[in-house]
Amino acid sequence: MHKSKSTLAVLLLSLIARLVLIETLIDCPAAAATGVVSKDEVCDSRADYFLGIEDYPNAVKLHRQVITTHPRNALAHYHLGFAYGILGKRDEELAEYLRAASLGLKQWDLFLNLGLAYLEDRNLQAATGALETAVKLGPRHSEAHFNLGLVYERRGMLAQARQEMLASLELTPNEADALNMLGVIEAEDGDCARARQIWSVLARTEPGFEPARANLAILDRRADPVGQGLLRDHPAFRAASSDEACGNRDSNSWCQPPVR
Description:
There is one protein chain. By secondary structure, this protein is mostly helical. The chain has helices at 5-27, 30-33, 45-52, 56-69, 74-86, 90-102, 108-120, 124-137, 142-154, 158-171, 176-188, 192-205, 210-223, 228-231, 235-241, 243-246. The chain has two domains: 5-186, Alpha Horseshoe (Serine Threonine Protein Phosphatase 5, Tetratricopeptide repeat), CATH 1.25.40; 187-260, no CATH class.
């Protein structure tokens, strides 16, 4: 699934904050009447509890009940969409994210997840727009920059991809997936020397990170196609060809990190 643990952690922190807010409103019902917060700006504590413990079928059921009573509750639509996404119901997920956005919800992680859903759906243009919004709303979140850079790379927009990957690394220095992706971007842009430097450092500092070793092996194979038969016996080349390292892909394709 495209839902990452880091994104889920952000969401859960948001849920905890909102549960505290709901409890406050229970103790102080006058707050809602004064316009501090509306019923459409908080979700349901029980529904969010099931989302928090990763009981997604019950989270879907209870969030649907919330929406039946409060159809304009943007946060409930977002949370429902998130649960649908975890369950693999892409169409329902997208519909709920779009409904939340149309109701005015302006959370960076909503647009991050919307962009990731579009990316899984291979709708790169829509993914770009959503992730650009995520970066605008959450410029200090490396996940937004990383995934926008990933989409730019897939669209062949290498200058923009490099810029976003560097922005991600500025926020989370030495992050292996972002460094590996920066190497991919440099290689695709023709700077194989820079790519080799990035992957060599990464392979040395993160010896358990297979994609860096995989890409170094692919780089060597492309530089020495005559000797590729010998390279097939090299441990690095076996890592480059393994599903565990890179997923299902052609052995000549760069090993790229997953969306997160």
